[in-house]
Amino acid sequence: MSHANVHLFDADLGDTNLKHLLGGKGAGLTTMTRLGIPVPPGFTITTEVCVDFLANGGSYPDGLEAEVAASLASVEGQVGRRLGDASAPLMVSVRSGARVSMPGMMDTILNLGLNDETVKGLAQQSGDPRFAYDAYRRLLQMYGDVVMGVDHARYEEVLGQLKKEQGDARMLDKDLSPEALQELVKRYQAMIESEAGKPFPQDVQEQLWGAIGAVFRSWDNERAIRYRKMQGIAHRWGTACTVQAMVFGNMGETSGSGVAFTRNPSTGEKILYGEYLANAQGEDVVAGIRTPVALTAAAAAPGHEDRTLERRQPDVFAEIVGHCAALEAHFGDMQDVEFTVEQGKAYVLQTRTGKRTGRAAVRIAVELVAEGVVTPEQALTRVEPGSLEQLLHARLPTPDELLAKGVKPLASGLPASPGAATGAIVFDADEAEAQAKEGKTVLLVRRETSPEDIHGMKAAVGVVTATGGMTSHAAVVARGLGKCCVAGVGAFDVDYRKRQLRVVVGGETRTFGEGDVLSLDGSHGKVYAGALDVVAAATIPELDQLMTWADESRRLKVRANTDTPAGARTARSYGAEGIGLCRTEHMFFADERLEAVRCMVLADGEEGRNHWLDVIAPMQRGDFEAIFRAMDGLPAALRLLDWPLHEFLPKTADEIASVARALGDSADAVRARAEAMHEVNPMLGHRAVRVGLTFPAIYRMQVRAILEAALAVAGEGVTVHPEIMIPVVGLAKELEAMRAIAEAEAERVFADAGTRIAYQIGTMIELPRACLVAHQLAQHAEFFSFGTNDLTQTTFGISRDDAGRFLPTYVDDLELLSADPFARLDEEGVGALIRIAVEGGRGTREGLKLGVCGEHGGDPASIDFCERAGLDYVSCSPPRLPIARLAAAQAALRRRD
Ligand code: PEP
Ligand code: MG
User: Fold this and answer.
1) How far apart are CA 863 and CA 323, in angstroms?
2) Which of 853, 856, 866, 876 does the annotation list as catalytic?
3) How far apart are CA 393 and CA 482, in angstroms?
């Protein structure tokens, strides 16, 4: 490599993509340094070195050592201390940092540069031997674990033993005397040597290179790989390694560490929001072991105002406020800022785009526009479409509402991630995952969570922890996953061994075991015993504004999949511009209709079938009328019967007897007919247009019901745009024949009524063959609607209903697919077929209307494909409409870039 592999924080890298080269952490420190924010000096080794290092079996590019040495010398010059110099020892942190944040997934080492000599220098210089030996034992602990592979539990054992010898096994770390810490350092060293087979290195250069290697290697540790898979982060990016002079938040009461969000990450409100721990290192805040205090007096728990940084050190607080404002203005987005105060001097250690709830994302985006910081188009890109789902999350009644009903919370904690959930409790992540796989709804109960727990958090419907604050691992990860979370429930005593949760309520201890049910209110930080009813969430006012901008930016139209008038009304309220799919067979399944449908299917001969169709027809017409009224002015695609007749056959003896009675036939005769209609593989059998052609009376009835309903409501002054949609077509001849039948029936309806109405006939595209002959199909269709559920099923030859048995293994373990193709459209295969169909269809019929109505119509990545493929609309379930509108806008903006 000809260019530099190591960059000091004040380096001017021009228009290089800093995040790609230096990782998010290195990029942030470099940008902050150049903005004049006080950052402890340091340098970053690039992600390219990591990629190289891992590819070349752990060897570094030529000249790296010299570059590191020169950069270190520069840092030493700025700080006035030197690594390994006992008279003025420099200590550094060595941290990982990829181009996107992977919280807690990779390794970090602090206090590097301490050894048996420099620790004495530090003790003397700081005048605080306790502090010096505490720093040293932390280094031993981290270095021994991360670089030398000595399990962290071993340190706990040594520490526990020492405390016991000191006479109090339960004493806090901070109460250990300097002498005890000195002893601890000795014991840690002995333990490391015996466990690792070699001593902790006294040579500071060896320490440094050991740490750098460990950081690079941690890119490929198991939990980082798992996290990348979950988040879709590329394995080839690598991590950067940042080496930075240490500052100490644990140098007494005028020191401390904190985290500040420039806005409230739960609600989006524009107030500085954060937490602070006096006399503590940053790790203590994030690890959730001690529960920190709010930064501001306004946010502090009653009685704790004087413990806030705002009250304790107003000048330092004011400085932090200034830095936060500068950082937010620079990045044009809410920031998550980590800072440390060392004996009254504030340093910013890290800034990054703050993770936030969907609700906060929307509010912040809209307010940033109002403040003139970003444009509406930029605001649209600030909200991850999937995060809107949280807005539509269920919630519990408020604590006051519940109290009014006599329901008291079992315990309270911090409202770490909003939403609500009821579930059976489990105490470890593997158990959560296992039970969720069995279809159980579980809540994960932990003392605190760590990165190893992510799969369990994902599997659980909610998370509750006994310790930790709003920025603890549990809180941050739960918010990212959109899971509700209550953190820091002080009354919880979690016993992993007994798998028990003990809660002290009013002097009395209540015990809960695995499987017992609790309810969480993540918005208010409450935990309730037993199951509670959840209520649907209300939307927030800023969402309307964001949606208006989205609607102005998008090209794709957005429709809804819905079968009921109520669904159609909801869809309109969520912004639907029509119905993209009304599955009419759902109308057949209402209790009182099912029997008539069964009789129609099993009637002996055409006459009997027609009789039952006449019974069903008025019901269908009524349904269609109601839907047309609800969709006044908007198009509605009504799909003719799609299901295999097989699905409607009676199964139990009672059902058969009942149908036989209605038909005036013997039960044996009905059973015999039902058996004759049985299919081995109904989804690939007698269904959809195949039924329409072999039993044309059924489709005729439906066409008549649709058009009579359209005429009737048009007479009331409603504007109707019926689109009759034929499913599972594979042959142009099928469509041609079906269209002729439908048109003939339409003409009869119009003749009977003495008036006409405009309508369209189109086809669903659900079979690979249909894509390949789309140019022929378009001769007989005014529109195509891609049924990507069936198209995925038939393209892959994977049954929609059985895919769950092995697809997760394909995706998660074997990595044969990057996502479940039934959730995210497979562009390579299914997408290629769609492109063929688009070209063929439009080649025959200019202006052919094209849409997607499979589940993919609500998936942001699939919507992006629909934009690129030039479709006209996507159709999805009503609650996903806001997601689809935003995703469509983002897709359009991306194409414009
Ligand atoms: C489809 O196949 O994508 C579709 C929308 O139809 P259904 O899911 O009803 O088969
Ligand atoms: Mg289908």
Assistant:
1) 39
2) 853
3) 9
Helices (H), 332-389: 358-370, 376-381
Please tell me the distance from the alpha carbon of residue 851 to that of residue 783, in angstroms, as a whole number. 8
Which neighbouring-strand residues pair with 93? 244
Q: 852 pLDDT exceeds 80?
A: yes
With H, G, I as helix, E, B as strand and everything else as coil, classify residue 236: coil
With a pLDDT cut of 70, the percent of the chain lying above it is: 97
Q: Mutate which of 583, 796, 824 to test ligand 1's pocket (most atoms within 8 Å of Cβ)?
A: 583
Answer for the pair 893, 380: CB distance below 8 angstroms, yes or no: yes
In the numeric block, which tokens belong to residue 298? Answer: 């306004």
pLDDT digits (tens, 9 = 90+) for 515-539: 999 999 988 899 999 999 876 666 6
854 CB less than 6 Å from ligand 1?
A: yes
By DSSP bridging, strand 721-726 and strand 517-521 are unpaired
Mean pLDDT for the chain? 92
What distance in angstroms lies between residue 854's CA and the mean position of ligand 1's atoms? Answer: 5
Does residue 690 line the site of ligand 1, with CB under 6 A? no
Taking the C-alpha atoms of residue 519 and residue 784, their distance in angstroms, rounded to an integer, is 46
- What is the enclosing helix (H) or strand (E) of 883? helix 881-896
What is residue 1's predicted lDDT score, i.e. its pLDDT? 36
User: How many angstroms separate the CA atoms of 617 and 704, rounded?
Assistant: 8
**Residue 480 reports pLDDT greater than 70:** no
Residue 874 DSSP SS3: strand
Q: Is the CB of 581 under 6 A from ligand 1?
A: yes
Ligand 1: atom nearest CA of 787 is 3
Q: How confident is the model at residue 467 (pLDDT cuts 50, 70, 90)?
A: confident
Q: Does 580 sit in the ligand 1 pocket, CB within 6 Å? A: no
Tell me the average pLDDT across 804-830: 87
Q: How far apart are CA 396 and CA 398, in angstroms?
A: 6
What would the 3-class secondary structure string for 212-227 be?
HHHHHHHCCCHHHHHH
What is the atom index within ligand 1 of the atom nearest the CA of 561?
5
* φ and ψ at residue 677, rounded to 5 degrees: -90, -5
How many C-beta atoms lie closer than 10 Å to residue 171's C-beta?
A: 14
Token duo for residue 332: 């044009």
Q: Under 8 Å CB-to-CB from 209, ≥6 apart: which residues?
A: none
Mean pLDDT value of segment 150-155: 92
Which residues are CB-contacts of 870 (< 8 A; sequence separation ≥ 6)? 838, 850
Residue identifier of the C-alpha nearest atom 1 of ligand 1 = 787
Q: How confident is the model at residue 2 (pLDDT cuts 50, 70, 90)?
A: very low
From 559, 581, 824, the mutation candidate for ligand 1 (largest count of ligand atoms within 8 A of CB) is: 581
pLDDT digits (tens, 9 = 90+) for 120-145: 999 998 889 999 999 999 999 999 99
Give the pLDDT score at 823. Answer: 85
Ligand 1 binding pocket includes 787 (Cβ within 6 Å): yes
pTM of the model: 0.75
Span from the CA of 790 to the centroid of ligand 1 (angstroms) = 6
Q: What is the pLDDT of residue 490?
A: 86
How far apart are the C-alpha atoms of 856 and 683, rounded to whole Å? 20
Q: Which of 7, 455, 473, 780 is catalytic?
A: 473
Highest mean predicted confidence (pLDDT) among 101-110, 196-205, 405-414: 196-205
Distance 789 CA to ligand 1 centre (A): 5
Q: Which residues pair with 635 in a beta bridge?
A: 721
Ligand nearest to the CA of 791: 1
Nearest residue (by CA) to ligand 1, atom 10, is 790
Higher pLDDT, 395 or 108: 108
Could you tell me which residues come within 8 angstroms of residue 198 by beta carbon, excluding any fewer than 6 positions away?
148
For residue 223, which phi and psi values (nearest 5 degrees)? -70, -30
Nearest C-alpha to atom 9 of ligand 1 is from which residue?
583
Q: Sort residue 597 into left (φ over 0), alpha (ψ -120 to 50) or beta.
A: alpha
Please confirm, yes or no, whether 473 is among the known catalytic residues: yes
